[in-house]
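Bench notes, bay 3.
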Amino acid sequence: MIESARELIDGAERVVVLTGAGISAESGVPTFRGSGGLWKSYRAEDLATPEAFRRDARLVWEWYGWRREVVRACAPNAAHAALAQYAASHPQSLIATQNVDGLHRAAGTPQTSLVELHGALFRVRCTRCAWRSEHTGTIDATSSETLSKCEECGALARPDIVWFGESLEPANIERAFAEASTADVCLVVGTSGVVQPAASMAAVTRRAGGAVIEVNPDETPITSIATVSIRGTAVETVPAILGVG
């Protein structure tokens, strides 16, 4: 299977990659959702919403501060590194990630080859104006007054993350789907294939005549349309598929 996937990659001029939680799980990043995602008795679905932020911004920021410290202790793995190396040598490629942990950037993925569909944990944006900024420091959520503020208008800042009930930024999803529609290969790594609209990228490539390579320990809805489906982890397989590392 890996040999077949490698042949598809080697014969492709344009490759689009979609990554999900599975690739970062191997770096120790928890999903923060489901049965293992409780924090002080709160679920992610209770906190990662615009309503929760309006109700108690301090509590939401406290949760994100904790998440940052958990992710800060994690490092990019061999799959992140292989994808970064491939993107650097193939500037026409695109990596679209559903992850907000920043590990693709930390691995050295060129910014021009990366779309963070769901936002970034270490970035903030204003709740009033268009300002956004990198923010890698510690979150001080001891009171409402100590929370991060916009550097341009002074309004409260929020995590630059797409929350439940919010739409993805049109420019990001449009770019991802445009690349998927012209790609020779769509490589899907570590995603459940159920979170829309990103999960449809593979189908777009397939309908346009391209091939789909899936890497996942488990079967997903993408398996049925995959040209090659590899039951394995990202670290085990992605470097070999890409021929780098």
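Next record in the batch:
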Amino acid sequence: MAVFTIAISGASGAPYAVRLLEALLGSQHEVKLVVSAAGEKILKLECGVELGGSLNDRYDEVRRALRIAKSEVPLEIFENNDLAAPISSGSFPVTGMAIVPCSMGALGRIANGISTDLVSRSADVCLKERRKLVVVPRETPLSAIHLENMLRLTRAGAVVLPAMPGFYHRPREISDLVDMVVSRILDHLGVENKIFDRWKGEGVSKFLSVEED
């Protein structure tokens, strides 16, 4: 069982975060969760998950959203302003971190080493400790500033994995598109998974063939 930090910031794309939590907790990986204030609003808007005021309320709401018993959840939730949390220190061992979704504000702060909250500090720790950091931006179009920040993060060792699902697996439901992105996140965190049909190249020749003159 590995230990992962999962952060939810204020960009659209909360269903990706919920599905990622389901996959990690369902595989009995330990999760340290932190949600920004804007991330809480997105969770409510897009997933109907309304985190309460106290830490216990937040824990119970996440547990209900994921439909798993309290005793089965290897989950710990931290407030975003808790810079004394274990995940803010490089001495606390985590396997990796994913920010899903990652707002351009959060991405910019991390790219420039500005640790003003637990989301950005935890990401900074992963970079300095050479641990896996996956950021999942969901924004369009992208400005030159956005692109430069993504390049800076990539050069620092992070994986920039935009929420851009493909269609070669012929999705029929929105959940199929979500699963594809989440599967790729899990891949880069080093977590084996089979939550979507991967590309195999079978039967592709008839679609790619070009008639000879």
